[in-house]
Amino acid sequence: MTVAYLKEKPAGQGSTPSTPSAGSGMRSAAARLLGTGNGSRALSFGSNGTSRAVSGSSRMGGGIGVSTSASGSQGMANYDGKGAYIIFNTADTLFISDLNSHDKDPIKSIHFSSSNPLCHAFDPEAKDGHDLLVGVFSGDVYSMSLRQQLQDPGKKPVSYQHFVNRDKDKDKDPSQGGAASSRSTCVAWVPEREGIFVVSHADGNLYVYDKCKDGNTDWTFPTVKDQSQVLISHAKSSKSNPIARWHICQGAINDISFSPDGAYLATVGRDGHLRVFDFAKEQLIFGGKSYYGALLCCSWSADGKYLLSGGEDDLVQVWSMDDRKIVAWGEGHNSWVSAVSFDPYWSPPNSDETEENVMYRFGSIGQDTQLLLWDLALEEIAVPLRHPSGGSPTFSSGSPSAQWDNACPPAGVLQPSPRMRDVPKLSPLVAHRVHVDPLSGLEFTSESILTICREGLIKIWARPIHSESNQQPDSSEQVVGNATAKDKMLTSSNKAGASSPSFKQPPPVLFT
């Protein structure tokens, strides 16, 4: 799931605003989607590709879904104005919904006949209008204009560039999944680098592309002899595209994320390692391992100082760029963690914003269908190591990471997972079962939280509205409309982990 904010079309190109701005209609739209009486009907694709009704546990929890009647030819205005859109994929189709629309059905569906879309990314700063990337199962990538897709009445992508992954035809080992091993797993625009994007694959490779170059040129890269080692190779010709290949790990790269300034690239993979690279220098800065199994997701804080990861160990890890290691881990999910994200729009009430009082809010979703919200207070995780009676710090006996407890690990070293008792533990502020099916995507906006499940159902959760005096409701029994008991406001006072010293008293969090 991607939230895309289209800007106003330049005046010289005859712009005519046709959709409300992202901010002006969000609250009313969320109210329409979430508070429409006795439960609005939502549709989504079932696993067999047919539509089915989905009834959530929340009486006020409407959602954006996909019905078989959703048409890509709905005649609306010219889309020259700014607007906010939700992009998501199901089976062989990419869907686009207007975040501020009354209609819950997608306003556009784009059918990919040759290969199913798997991942996508949007660049609001693209100068040439080609702002949308779509990675598909074959390993190929499409670059296109979101505005042009909305304006076209058809169901096929238009005015696109096709970047062919020629490695998909090489080394197809049926025992390793055959062609599936080259499938696209994630696409991302490189911040502050116009026209440059990267694509990760299930074979452990990541390719760097320049959208200004032809996507069908011949190119070859040297064979990777040791699949467990990082190997970065560049194209021999200046006309080749991709311009570089990074072999990251053995097995799939499950997620990638750039720091906000584009300086660092984080990857997580099937081998259970998080790796952080200096993207310009093409150097591994540091990395670490999960407590168990693969890592599935990662995300940066807005200031680029912290990094989240989650995966098959059911935990959320917090990594510090300054310390180059895990500084906290969170326990609360009952199954694999599907997505993690810092909330860039949240700030603690009455905070003096001093270094030691900085607090971050982040969220996580899992295959247990739960949305968890967490607080990360720097003053709580900056705890001294345990000292025995003799006064010296204690280290884990025989632990290779013991020597790094008081210093940054050497550059380029993949650390083993530290002993859990040596790292501060976090507990969630809020744990709420938000869908019936396992969750796959999480997005924060200035006025809502968006979640999507594997069946293609999107729910929009309105943020609490605070008065100018920052006064908070004082009762955990406060409800909105005719919400049931399960829809009541959840505060830290009624959560089991709220008394943990890892957290300050948070403002109430309202789910409708």
UniProtKB/TrEMBL annotation:
Name the species this protein comes from: Zea mays (Maize)
- Keyword Repeat on this protein? yes
Q: What is this protein called?
A: Transducin/WD40 repeat-like superfamily protein
Cite the entry's keywords alphabetically. Repeat, WD repeat
Tell me the PROSITE patterns matching this sequence: WD_REPEATS_2
Positions of the Nucleoporin Nup120/160 beta-propeller domain: 87-286
List, as start-end ranges, the regions of compositional bias called Polar residues: 468-481, 490-503
SUPFAM superfamilies, per the entry:
WD40 repeat-like (SSF50978)
Q: Signal peptide: which range, if any? A: none
User: Coiled coil where?
Assistant: none
- Keyword Repeat assigned to the entry: answer is yes
Compositionally biased residues, Low complexity: 12-27
Ranges annotated as biased composition (Basic and acidic residues): 165-174
Chain intervals for the UniProt region annotation (Disordered): 6-27, 165-184, 468-512
